[in-house]
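Input structure tokens:
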């Protein structure tokens, strides 16, 4: 027998350790991703309930919770804080120990800054005329189902979707430009259109980043979790805007 002849069994055995390492890496990524969502939820709950108005003699005082009011009345501050913690978390993503703290810190802060949107969405639903009567709950369910379906599709197909990168960057730039324009115009219709396109763009990012984590040789679980977290949050925000929009 020719000693140089390849053995299928040998190839399978040699591939197994690599596959096992990749599975271990993905477990770390999705563990950190899930934990960051939990931390973000806790941050949002703290903002919504700490200092929230109490029921007094059958009457609900109308003041917003302090943190909700702060970021609702100062959107520029909110944007600055969001970009600050995002860039900070990315800057230290490869520093052991610090990167995990930065990921969870960013998740907590983004949960707090998202609280005004959650508050306003539920308030709008209370007035009636929104697409969903419980927009926050339904948004979470739809986001989990969408994210989970896209992720499962990538894992089952095992397709390399690296070709999507340039198109997604262009799409994200268009969305960002339209959002900046709508700050000046304040158009509800344009806002709904932007949110709809954003669902497609960030759904694409879920596909792309999941494929990248599956096929690449990178060993940065914190960075991978950070990318997936931001995809999930952007997808959540876009769907929330659609479901909490007034339709009467």
């Amino acid at each position: 027998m020719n000693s140089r002849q390849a053995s299928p069994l040998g190839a399978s055995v040699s591939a197994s350790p690599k596959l096992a390492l990749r599975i271990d890496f993905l477990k770390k990524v999705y563990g950190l991703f899930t934990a960051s969502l939990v931390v973000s939820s806790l941050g949002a709950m703290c903002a919504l309930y700490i200092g929230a108005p109490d029921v007094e003699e059958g009457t609900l005082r109308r003041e917003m919770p302090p943190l909700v009011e702060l970021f609702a009345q100062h959107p520029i501050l909110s944007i600055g804080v969001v970009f600050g913690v995002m860039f900070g978390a990315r800057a230290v993503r490869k520093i052991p120990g610090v990167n995990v703290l930065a990921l969870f810190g960013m998740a907590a802060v983004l949960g707090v800054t998202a609280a005004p949107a959650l508050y306003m969405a539920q308030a709008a639903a209370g007035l009636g005329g929104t697409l969903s009567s419980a927009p926050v709950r339904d948004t979470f369910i739809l986001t989990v189902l969408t994210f989970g379906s896209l992720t499962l599709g990538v894992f089952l197909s095992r397709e390399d979707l690296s070709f999507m990168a340039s198109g997604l960057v262009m799409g994200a730039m268009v969305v960002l430009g339209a959002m900046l324009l709508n700050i000046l115009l304040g158009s509800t219709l344009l806002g709904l259109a932007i949110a709809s396109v954003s669902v497609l763009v960030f759904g694409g990012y879920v596909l792309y980043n999941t494929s990248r984590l599956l096929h690449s040789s990178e060993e940065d679980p914190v960075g991978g979790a950070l990318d997936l977290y931001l995809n999930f949050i952007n997808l959540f925000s876009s769907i929330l805007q659609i479901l909490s929009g007034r339709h009467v």
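Strands lie at 55-56, 59-60. Residues 1-15, 55-61 have pLDDT under 50 and may be disordered.
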